[in-house]
UniProtKB/TrEMBL annotation, chain A:
PANTHER family: CYTOCHROME P450 YJIB-RELATED (PTHR46696:SF1), P450, PUTATIVE (EUROFUNG)-RELATED (PTHR46696). The keyword Heme applies. Keywords: Heme, Iron, Metal-binding, Monooxygenase, Oxidoreductase. The lineage of its organism: Bacteria, Bacillati, Actinomycetota, Actinomycetes, Micromonosporales. GO terms for molecular function: heme binding; iron ion binding; monooxygenase activity; oxidoreductase activity, acting on paired donors, with incorporation or reduction of molecular oxygen. InterPro entries: Cyt_P450 (IPR001128), Cyt_P450_B (IPR002397), Cyt_P450_CS (IPR017972), Cyt_P450_sf (IPR036396). Gene3D superfamilies: Cytochrome P450. It comes from Actinoplanes cyaneus. This is Cytochrome P450. Residues 10-23 have a biased composition (Basic and acidic residues). PROSITE patterns: CYTOCHROME_P450.
TrEMBL record, chain B:
InterPro entries: 2Fe-2S_ferredoxin-like_sf (IPR036010), 2Fe-2S_ferredoxin-type (IPR001041), 2Fe2S_fd_BS (IPR006058), Beta-grasp_dom_sf (IPR012675), FAD-bd_FR_type (IPR017927), FNR_nucleotide-bd (IPR039261), MRET (IPR050415), Riboflavin_synthase-like_b-brl (IPR017938). The keyword Transmembrane helix does not apply. It comes from Actinoplanes cyaneus. Keywords: 2Fe-2S, Flavoprotein, Iron, Iron-sulfur, Metal-binding, Oxidoreductase. Residues 2-104 form the FAD-binding FR-type domain. This is Ferredoxin. Residues 229-314 form the 2Fe-2S ferredoxin-type domain.
Amino acid sequence: MTAPVSHADPFGHDNLEDPGPLHESLRAAGPVVRLSRYDTYALARYEHVHAALTDWQRFQSAAGVGLSNFRHEKPWRPPSLLLEADPPRHDAPRRVLSAIIGPRALHRLRERWAADAADLVDRVLDDDGGVVDAVPALAEAFPLRVFPDAVGIPADGRENLLPYGDHLFNAFGPPNDLVAAGAGRIAGLSAWVDARCAREVLTADGFGAAIWAAADRGDLTPDQAPLVVRSLLSAGVDTTVHGLSAVLYALATNPRQWERLCAQPSLARVAFDEAVRWESPVQTFFRTATTDVTVGETVIPDGAKILMFLGAANRDPRRWDDPDRFDLGRDPSGHVGFGMGLHQCVGQHIARLEAESLLTALARRVSRIEPAGPVARHHNNTLRAWRSIPVRLHRK
Amino acid sequence: MAETRTLRVTGKEPVADDVVALTLADPGGARLPDWTPGAHIDVILPGGLTRQYSLCGDRWDAHSYRIAVLRERGGRGGSAYVHDVLAVGGVVGLGGPRNNFPLVPAGRYLFIAGGIGITPLLPMIAQAELLGADWQLLYGGRREASLAFGHDLLGYGDRVHLRPEDRHGLLDLPGFLARWRPGTRVYCCGPAPLLAAVERACAGLPPHTLRTERFVASAAAGLARGAPFEIELARSGTVLTVPAHSSVLDVVTAAGAGVLSSCRQGVCGTCEITVLAGEPEHRDSVLDDAERAAGTRMFACVSRARSDRLVVDL
């Protein structure tokens, strides 16, 4: 059967500003929709996105998780050993990184990050009287404070991480104006990031040094180690920034949910995952069919690119009751905001710990997060992001 | 997928003297958890005997596992049950997969197998071949008829050296290891005396060259529990019963304890809970042996209890 066709541009500014109507139309059209503009297929229902994410055998990543098909096109940078790899080459980098930043390894960071979050919130309340733009003051400030330290890169130049990540996530889309806008700086930013992956610049106690130690044990090859460090610096900053922005925006605009969190701070983890479901900071990733794959009644041909709409799946009413509502009473478990299957976000536990630290510190000191001006989106081909969320934090 | 994970036997065939191969699948036909070469699963037999078997099939087949089971003389009945009682259509419990014996990236491998220790090496060999690595296999056993999968391996040609003891005597380890060159990794699985001999033979090689897994028939301590158990939520004092066919995750979530989860296969690590008292029975793919023994954390989606009650920090 021929799949329904959409002529929409998922990477156009109207859809990046508000992807909701596009998502709804794609879900309604069928399990698979052909995107005429990019000669690809789209999956937008939870069931099919989940199935494609877990089926690495038929939906491969090594041909690129952006629009570019590495079977025919040269990648703009050396491919990631994690994101843009399939088994068996994916195995060793994934195993090493999972152990280094898995839930077990993060217990030792819990107290330090809680103290860092408390300190940051205190400073925001004292210095700015609590009237701040939550994006730079909290959502960017906290990850940029704790994460590069945890990786072990030097202090200078960390401001490069955000534009690097922004371009990287734009580059998964088509070569549109967003990619063109970042192209001028990217060579310099890439060189800066690559230089931070070398053994000699990393502190002895961080994730980066642990990756190099794995290479010393032979669990990775020496030429893999810097690329695995690069994955941390690529995927670990913008994503958490926008995840934190998402939960802060959600709590500012849903005061009943904020009250609920204050009354029961142990809901911080649920609040963050619910925000990741509701907002889906990573909106989309591509896969490539390794064979003719039948989804619904449509045959997706071998070699075709498939765009998975994580954000649409996370608001699919077939899976979620009242999906557009941000609700701490919901169990958001099973959302695909971190992906699913063997490529599922290896840093998800870091993201959760950052969010739990920051939300717990806020809930302890702040009685109300009041919107204090017009908000503004930041457009990115892959990420659902905020540029500005002005708020007034009311001190308890 | 069933909430307590089970596998159905969909195939059973002899592959050598005293060795049967089983093909296992999800009873509902679902995908099975992903695995990597060197991984093993816990097979939980009726009555709670738990045995560990290396996965020796094809990871590109997401819907079945393959294991091979040697009949253990003088064992405690696990392998005898598999050989004599367990039939196609029968059901066993599943723990894992876990991998304590991963294949690390290298351009060259030397594989040494003793008897049923060939099983974890089979998918490693397939993978080395797929990656175009240079590899050789030395495979020993008592007799030619006891070398499981020996005939299949001959398809790899002169990379494979089958050395049944009744014709060749003990394995010529120094001769085989003379092929070692810088960058070669040596993988060995088999009985303890073989591992000890290989360790001695590799003593002069650089650290981390040799990776071994001891083939052990000895079970995890104690029996897996079939009966329901209680779980006490320490913060509220609530005591819940976990029936044999429900997961801890479902029981505590139904009680409103708000435990996040994601993969529900014991892989992603999201549903970690802290154990304050009682003895967990770990069936996840995350914790290593020391962490399992510590017994202070568990993953609620798949792991259960050995003791009558678990007290958890919820």
